[in-house]
Amino acid sequence: MIYFSFSRRLETFQLNADASFGNERVVVTGENGAGKTTLLRLIAGLEAPDQGYLKFFGQTWFDSSQKLTVPAHCRKAAYVFSNAALLPWLSVADNMLIGLSSNERKNISAAIQKTICALKLEPLMIKRSCQLSAGETQRVTLARALLSRPRMLLLDEPFSAQSPKMRDYLQQWLVQLHERLQFPMIMVTHNNDEAKAVGQRHWHMSNGGLINPFPTRVTHTTGALYE
Question: Rounded CA gap, 86 and 107, in Å?
């Protein structure tokens, strides 16, 4: 299980979050500026809470009382930003596989091909990332996140630039992937239909407060996707 209870003072309000979840698809909704993105950044380790704790399957990632903070790169929580960005001087293939060694690419070659196919990226692989549409960029960014073999997936409006047809397809694909691999996932969305299609649990944020973070069943994993 993942447990967290922390606070962070923001410009206009204080974020207070207290929840637990396991290998589930959690969706987070709320108005703009409610604290949704900050919540993801705190879990990923891109920002630090002012106080509190965060525990990931028995490992302490943050504890203000112990002055303990595990850096983001050690948490291996893949974060897909709402404004997806790629390195414009690299090809789509190089962007997607960035950070993976030659051996790692060989070890997950089958997963790489499956991901390329599933995310409809085959025609894009030799293009420069600067030639992509916003929707294509989102899909490449999602592929890169998955192929980094994360222990948790954090998604901030990952399908916002997709066509309605592609968005529906990606929602179904993500649910099927999760049901097969079983990993912790939090997805921020402003789309209520998407929240219903993807989420197993629904949290709502308002003025920095987390609503409906009910406990869930215990599931056990410390592994990575595609391991």
Answer: 24
Q: What is the residue-averaged pLDDT of the chain?
A: 90
Helices (H), ranges, 119-163: 134-147
Is residue 67 within 8 Å of 114, Cβ to Cβ?
no
Architecture field, domain 2-84+149-211? 3-Layer(aba) Sandwich (3.40)
Q: How confident is residue 225, by pLDDT bands cut at 50, 70 and 90?
A: low
Rounded Cα gap, residues 175 and 196, in angstroms: 11
Q: Where are the domains of the chain?
A: 2-84+149-211
pLDDT grade, residue 106 (50/70/90)?
A: confident
Tokens 């999760």, located at residue? 178
Cβ count near 213 (within 10 Å): 18
Contacts of 46 (CB under 8 A, 6+ apart): 72, 79
Q: Which residue has the higher pLDDT, 140 or 83?
A: 140
Angle at 124 between CA 123 and CA 130, to 5 degrees: 155
